[in-house]
Amino acid sequence: MNLRVVRTAREIRGAVSQARQSGQSIGLVPTMGALHQGHGALIERARAESGCVIVSIFVNPLQFDRKDDYERYARTFPADLEFCRERGVDLVFAPDVAEVYPGDQRVYVDAPSLSEHLCGKYRPGHFRGVATVVAKLFNLVQPDRAYFGEKDAQQLAIIQALVTDLNFPIVIVPVPTVREHDGLALSSRNARLNPKERRSAAAVYRALRAAENNLGAGASAAKEAAIAVLQQEPTIRVEYFEIVDPETLHPVEGIRGPVRIAAAVWAGETRLIDNIYSAGTGRPIP
Amino acid sequence: MNLRVVRTAREIRGAVSQARQSGQSIGLVPTMGALHQGHGALIERARAESGCVIVSIFVNPLQFDRKDDYERYARTFPADLEFCRERGVDLVFAPDVAEVYPGDQRVYVDAPSLSEHLCGKYRPGHFRGVATVVAKLFNLVQPDRAYFGEKDAQQLAIIQALVTDLNFPIVIVPVPTVREHDGLALSSRNARLNPKERRSAAAVYRALRAAENNLGAGASAAKEAAIAVLQQEPTIRVEYFEIVDPETLHPVEGIRGPVRIAAAVWAGETRLIDNIYSAGTGRPIP
Lengths: 286, 286
Hints:
By secondary structure, chain A is an alpha/beta fold.
């Protein structure tokens, strides 16, 4: 396979323009590297649908609310390249920070109402950083389609709103969460868990399913059932557990339609998030 | 001349794609209509540089901080079309509000530090509305170049930052302010002035020049000289008069380099703005 790595805005524009001229459609998979089979699912979907598959690898400082989290974020570039090569990626765009932010960033993209709850409430500025860098990547790459995982449900909703509300001519393709055998959602952060935390972390998915099974009793009862599951794990501290409207991402009280059930927990020093979509009847939508 | 008018996102994308396929470059002149020779200068510049000249006409509710100002804003669509036709415009994009904002706007573009002073201080949300609609227009039209007047200096600076900081592949072309014989900057709002207000309004430009001539004495003295000019006009009320860094748009005290001198005044019920760029030595940059 011929995997090409480019580092600059000029190079990525040139490479995309070349692919377009040869009639290829462009599929973009934006990542922060530390690639795992969750990213693999995004890449495979992009590979099936696109003439030219581009994976961007950029740990975006603007979306980290804590400097130590930014610095500790896993960087595994040689392995990431191999991962992309094995999956038939055409182009890796891996700019450095000065290429993406050559000066002070003065202009931001923000989705205030979609950022009020869930992770947005606990990570001030996070989604502004995400939306801003994604707008930059969209303008640099100008893909036909961009692929995002459902694991980051709030990010996905914000990026879908970004494309709709700012009229980007790009289709956002959501890709289902990939899970370990015990239900734990794949995440680059899982590598930080010690064996005990790793075992406890599986309770997050069990808690989401417990909430879903109790939706018939109302949102409060469903949340209580979920939190009871998590409280059995001494290494898990709940940051939030919410049942929200899948469109507005605002918490619901009565369950009248589909909902998203979402959680963030700390397993030791590691923050984990997960969510499921539910039709709101107690029966999951696959 | 063949002037085509389109109303929808789908039509404008189709028309642009057609122009591109026939090898034309695209020049966009975003306006709110009520076209005058200030817009004429933008269109003439676009006509000279572009294969396909597009004028958008859209009175953007998102950028009005006051509902009455939005409602009173001049709408002269038939005359605007004639104006465009005479100047060889290829395409007028005139969407209605529901086409541009089909649902609640959830995603915004903002330039907080560039909006702190000057008009941004007195019109909360104004530049967020401008930056957001311009991002939408850029994504709908995807022009090679977009033309903006220097009269709206803060808007121009914010849009230049928007393009740089969000990596839009678009060149922003600034076009000098067009003035009446007595120096009054052309504006759609001038039509609201009664004869007495119209005569007084010329003092704004004289005040800008008075400030420039006194820059050697420092920013405070220069502002005093300018305000003395404006105080001779009983129908004029000063909203702000500032001497700012042309990059950051933050007020300067000592004059060390180029500055922008900017004013907003009320002439009766009509708000007028104007500005000049100065090398900071007392000698104007043409």
